[in-house]
Amino acid sequence: MRKLRPATVVQILSYPPPVRRLKKDIAIVLLSLAVAAVSACFFLGYIQQEKEMETQDIYGLLPGRPLSVLAINQPASFARLFLKSEKGRKLVQRWIPDCFLEMMRWNHDLQFVLFSFHPEGVVCYVKATRKRAHELERQTLRACFPAYEPQEGTLYNLKFRYYADAGSRFLGCYQHEGLWVASYSKRLLEKVARKQLLPEERYGEEVPVPFSLIRRFDPNATANLLTPSEGWDIEIARQDTVLWRYTQPWIYADLFPGEGSICGFCSFPYHLLNDSICRSLGDSIASRIERILPSLDVTPQASQDNAELYFTFCSPL
After folding, report:
1. What is the residue extent of each domain of the chain?
2. Which of 93, 109, 91, 111 is nearest to 101 (CA)?
3. Residue 132 vs residues 8, 108, 178, 192, 302: alpha-carbon distances, Å
4. Are 234 and 245 in contact (CB under 8 A)?
5. How far is CA 209 from CA 38, 206, 241, 249, in A?
6. Which residues contact 108 (CB under 8 A, 6 or more apart)?
7. Distance of CA 193 to CAs 113, 177, 180, Å?
8. Are the C-beta atoms of 250 and 228 separated by less than 8 Å?
9. How many other CB atoms are found less than 10 A from the CB of residue 255?
10. Which residues 6+ apart lie within 8 Å of 268 measured at CB?
11. Please, are residues 72 and 222 in contact by the beta-carbon 8 Å criterion?
12. Dihedral sign (CA 106, 109, 115, 120)
């Protein structure tokens, strides 16, 4: 048996046992994973918070209380859903001008488009850099309005461009701070620009849409619809003669495609436990949707828990 030198013996005795070394390595790996997980959660939380702040800032620009708001999270999918059939095209053209539909249809990189509907007209808001805004105008608006070159003007130190449409109408637009805004209504467009440039005006009046409600939107839905509950008259008479009425100021729905159809999901707070009343409420809402949009043939499905009524409404396109 070969004798070990003293230095070699010391080296061998100084080595940690295998199990101890393994535990140390595992602890280091777990600590590294924990640090990485905390960092990732912090980063993702920061990104989500930034996105929420951007969204809130856009809603804060609305020029007054809207008739309804349509937030489109997947613009290209939304355009394909409605433009693939004549029924869907006619339905959406009642609310959204053709130039905006074509913009969403052909620019697949658009991540978020918001429409606010007002008595004076429609305002379109698109998250876009200055370069991307010029590309959108060159690729879409010039194709939609080829007869004349756009006219330019300056207001509040912003450059506005106006595209001539049929019937002596002009579509105005501008880009500022990562947002491209367009509307046929000069008054609405200028009011949005003024709010964007003067934050004290943005927050100096009542917020058109409550942020607490915006947070309930499903960002994974194709689109989110928000409309005032006024005029919907959502109420149900119970067998005990007590009248249940929806008293919240807003109604919202998450929109998503079905098999050859468009579907909406929404929920209502309630204190009713009768399944028949739940179905009656669904039928009542479906009939009101068909009254507003006669081309739809709406089929409601309902479910409930201890606090909410959940409805899914679908109609073929």
Report:
1. 17-53, 60-204, 211-316
2. 93
3. 69, 13, 9, 20, 43
4. yes
5. 34, 9, 34, 10
6. 76
7. 17, 11, 10
8. yes
9. 22
10. 234, 246, 248, 281, 308, 309, 311
11. yes
12. negative
146, two tokens: 């080829």
Structure tokens at 147: 């007869």
d(C-alpha 148, C-alpha 142), whole Å: 9
Q: What's the full length of the chain, in residues?
A: 317
The number of C-alpha atoms within 13 Å of 223 and in the hemisphere containing its C-beta is: 24
Could you say which DSSP state residue 188 is in?
H
Q: What is the pLDDT of residues 265-292, one digit of tens each?
A: 988 776 554 556 666 778 888 888 888 8
Residue tagged 């909406």 (tokens): 264
Tokens of 226: 């928000």
CA distances (Å), 129 to each of 136, 174, 257, in order? 10, 11, 29
Which residue in the block uniquely carries the two structure tokens 């606010």?
A: 116
Q: In whole angstroms, what is the distance from residue 166 CA to residue 57 CA?
A: 33
In the DSSP assignment, the letter for residue 141 is I
DSSP letter (8 states) at residue 298: -
Pairing of strands 169-176, 179-183: antiparallel
71-92: b or e for each residue (b if 16 or more CB lie within 10 Å)? bbbbbbebbbbbbeeeebeebb
pLDDT at 43: 39
What value, to the nearest 5°, has the Cα angle with vertex 302 and ends 72 and 262? 30
Model-level pTM? 0.78
Q: Tell me the per-residue pLDDT of 11-52, one tens digit each, with 9 for 90 and over.
A: 444 445 565 566 666 767 666 666 666 554 443 433 333 343
How many other C-beta atoms can be found within 10 angstroms of the C-beta atom of residue 67?
14
DSSP state of 168: G
